[in-house]
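Two proteins follow. First one:
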Amino acid sequence: MQVNKKVNDGMKNLLKTLTNTVEHVGYVSPMKKVYELTNKLKYMSEFFCTLTLHVLNDHLQYSSKLNTLIRKTKESAPVDGPHYIVGLLTVFR
C-alpha cells in the first residue's frame, strides 16, 4: 500500500512537471484542457444564462463592423466579448 502511494505521488509530480514544461514551450491547447472535475451543479445552466443575459444587456453589444462583441460604453464593466465567451466554454467543458 505504501509503495502504491509513493508511485502515485511520483506520477503526479511527473505530470505537473511535464505540464509546466509543455506550457512553457507553447505546445498546449487551453480549450481542450480540463481544469477541474466536479459533480454537476443543479442550477448551473440557469445561473450562467442569467449572467450572460445581464452582461449582454448592460455591458456588451455586437459590432457588425468588427464582427465581435464590444463594450457598450467606456464606463461599462471591463469585459471583452471573446474572452467572456471563451471563459464560458471553459466552464461548460
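Second one, unrelated to the first:
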Amino acid sequence: MATAVRSMMIPATQSVTTLVVSWVLMVPLLVFASQWGFSFEHGTINTAVGSLTQSADDSLSMKLQSALVYFTCACLMLPFARAIRANFYKDMLVSSLPVLAFLSIAWSQFPMVTLVHAVLLAANIAFAFYLLERFKTNDLLKVLMMVGMVAVIGGLFLIVLFPQYGVQSRSSVTSGAWQGIFPQKNISGFVLTNLLLPAFFVQFRSHYAKAFRILYIGMVLGMVAMSRSAGAWVTCAACIVFVLAMRGLVRMPHKEVAAIVFLFVGIVAIAGVCVYRNFDLLMYSIGKDPTLTGRTTIWSSLLASVMKRPMLGYGYTAFWGGLQGESANTAVLMHWPGMGYAENGVLELCLELGIIGVALYLFVFLRAVKDAAHCFMRCPSPAVMWYISSLFFVTVSNIEAGKLLSTSDLGFMLSLVTFAGLRREAQLSRLPGRHQHHSERMAPANNLPERMARL
C-alpha cells in the first residue's frame, strides 16, 4: 500500500515541491468535500430531533476552521496570483457569476450573508483556476484519488469505532446507512461518486499503483452502496455506464458516433416520458416513496416562492433563513425549522439569483458541452475524457439533489475545473500546429482503448 501511494503521489516531474503541496492540499480538499463539516463535528444533528431543528453549525470553532482552510488556500494560491487573475480576465463568462452574486446584495433578504458568500464564491473560482495552473491534469487526478481514499478509510474508521458519527441514525428510514466522515448519507454517496471518476482516467506506470486503482474503485463503490442513497446509486450507475460508453465511442468513426449519440438521446427522451407517466408505479415497485421522501412537496412549496421573485431571486445564499424571511413558509409546511436546502440544484439557484442566474449558469454549462463535443471528436486525451465524465456527473447529480453554485463545496470547484479545463483544451485544439501541446498535459488517447483495457 505504501509503495502504491508513493508511486501515485510522485508527479511526472519528480518535483518535491509538488509532492509537498499535494499532501498539504488534501486537508482543505477534504474539508471542501464534507461541504459544511465532518460528521463528528455535527454529532447532535445525527438524531431525529437534531436533524429537524438544526442546520449547518455556525459555531466559533467552525468559523475558525473555515478561516484556517481559506488561509491555507490563499497561501497556496499566492505564487500563482497573476495566472489566476489572467484566467478571470480570459473567462469573463465564468467571472460574471461572482459579479451577479455581488450585485444581488442590493435585493438580498440577508445582505451580509450574501456579501460573505459572494466573496467565498470568487475565492472558490480562484481556487479552481489555481488547481488548473498548479497541477498537470494527471497529477490532479492522483490528488483527488488520495482525497477519496482518505475519506473512505476515515469513514470506515468512524463506522466501526464511532458509529454514532459514521452511521446515520436520524430516522427509522435512514437508520443504518453509512455516512462516514460526511454529515449526511446522500452527501457521502454523491461526493464519493464524484471522486470515483478520476480512477477511470488517471495514468499510472507502477504496477502497485494500478493495483491500488482496483482497490480504490472497489472501496468507493462499497461505500456508495452502503450509503443507501438511491440518488447516489442512480448517479453512480449512470456515470459508470457513461464512462464505458465513451470508451466504446472513442474508437468509432465520427459519423457513427454522431448517429449513436442522436439515437441515445432519443431513447433517453422516450424513457423519460415513460417514467414520468408511470412514476408512482415505478417508485412503489422498487420500494420507494413517490414523493421522493417529501421532495416533491418541498418543490411545490418552493415554486410558489420562486414566482414572487422570478427574475432576481432572494439574493445569493440568502433564501434560507429558518423561520425568518420567505423560507419560513416552507419550513412551517414541512415542520422542519432547520431546513436549508431545495433538494434540487436548479431550483436552489433560481431561489437565490432568479431566472437571470439560472440562465447565466446555463450559458456557462452549454459552452462547456460545446467544448466537450469539439474535443471528443478530435482524439480526446484522458484529461478530456475526465472533464466530459465530470460534466455528465454535474448534469445527473443536479436532477433530484445537488447545488450549482455552492461555496466551500468540492463538487462545485471540480465543476469549475471542468468548465475551465474544457475551454482551455478546446482553444488549444483550434490553434494550428498545436496538437502536440494540446495533449502534453496528459498522454494522447490514440491508444486510449489499449491503455484503458488494462485498468
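SUMMARY FIELD: The chain has one domain: 2-250+293-453. Residues 193 and 236 are 6 Å apart (CA to CA).
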